Amino acid sequence: MSEQENQPLPKVLIVDDSRMVRASLVKLIRGRFEFREEADGEAGWQALLVDPSIQLVLSDIGMPQLDGYGLLQRIRASKVSRIQELPVIVISGEEDDAVRERARQLGANDFITKGIGATELLARLDSLTRLAQTRRELEESRAALAKQSPVDPVSGLVTESYMNWRGEQELALARRHHADLSAMLVEIDRYDQLITTYGAHVAQLVGRKLSGILATRVRKEDTVTQIAPSQFVVLSPSTDLAGICAFALRMQQAMEKLVMTYREDRIRISVTIGVASSSVDEAQSVSELIGMAVKRAQAGRQAGGNRVVGDQGEVTQDAVDRLLRQVVSIDQLLGQIRAGGGAELDAQLPAAVAALMPLLQLIEARLGCGIPLDRLSNYNSASGTGAQGTQKA
């Protein structure tokens, strides 16, 4: 991972009048979080005003100058949204229900005792920093939508609402021209484990890496969006089942070979991909098409992950090769006809009709020569085939 070393760790503000308590907390979080120490609530408040990199506050209650209750009140009453929405964990020397209840009413997010272990503390810090990050990203996404921007400012990909709008247009176009719209759901395997082992910021970097790979591998007419921290959707117009399966398999194999480094650890990344095709799955909407891809990715994850799953189960290279061989070649058909081929070509006629349908529609629109398009369409549908449009990305 080339950018991790420059990626700042989440910063925690530790406010406690005991130097020993601060030192013990620093020891527990060092390497996973940046930290800033202050000895009383007033100094902690001043730190919040001047340091926008602070993402979480750990505060004692009993302190000079300004106690933990006063600090919490100032934070929640702040007119600066960055400060007002900060997660706050109250440090308590004992299990005191009255202290916890008052702190909860003032807006504390969580409570810890001074003898907490490293695993529990890191889990709580990770959970709250992820929640805060999600909130910030949501607000930024809402701001982007308010400005009618199709691009999410966090991921750099199109927004989910734009993808749905664009997808419905592509699906309608595919129906008119007897073509296909395909979708794939790409999910990072063991994402929660990445967070637990390396922290939320590293898991986010993995997501950004996958986002960048997808953005460079798809065609200009494809649409890519992030629907969850570990999940991406790709919509591919004029791409049939064979094409989307081949594309998904290449993506899965490329990620399987990828090794990212963080500090001294080598992190192996894999993805599970679910694929769906509007013609094969007879999807009536983009949400239904994506829903099928999501269910297939879930099935792949339950089977162990690091695989591609389609309507017939796991997709292998042999299966993709068989599908690609079924894609009709008009040139090959014409060559076989010139060579005297006859009845053996009947099985390929439905695919040929599907492939030629856009051309036949154009000829009829320009010349009005009476091509029986309805009859040909019915013949194509009755034969159970759809237009072939192999994904070339």
UniProtKB/TrEMBL annotation:
<dbReference type="Pfam" id="PF00990">
    <property type="entry name" value="GGDEF"/>
</dbReference>
<feature type="modified residue" description="4-aspartylphosphate">
    <location>
        <position position="60"/>
    </location>
</feature>
<dbReference type="InterPro" id="IPR043128">
    <property type="entry name" value="Rev_trsase/Diguanyl_cyclase"/>
</dbReference>
<dbReference type="InterPro" id="IPR050595">
    <property type="entry name" value="Bact_response_regulator"/>
</dbReference>
<dbReference type="Pfam" id="PF00072">
    <property type="entry name" value="Response_reg"/>
</dbReference>
<feature type="domain" description="Response regulatory">
    <location>
        <begin position="11"/>
        <end position="129"/>
    </location>
</feature>
<dbReference type="InterPro" id="IPR011006">
    <property type="entry name" value="CheY-like_superfamily"/>
</dbReference>
<dbReference type="InterPro" id="IPR001789">
    <property type="entry name" value="Sig_transdc_resp-reg_receiver"/>
</dbReference>
<dbReference type="InterPro" id="IPR029787">
    <property type="entry name" value="Nucleotide_cyclase"/>
</dbReference>
<keyword id="KW-0597">Phosphoprotein</keyword>
<feature type="domain" description="GGDEF">
    <location>
        <begin position="179"/>
        <end position="313"/>
    </location>
</feature>
<dbReference type="InterPro" id="IPR000160">
    <property type="entry name" value="GGDEF_dom"/>
</dbReference>
<protein>
    <submittedName>
        <fullName>Response regulator</fullName>
    </submittedName>
</protein>
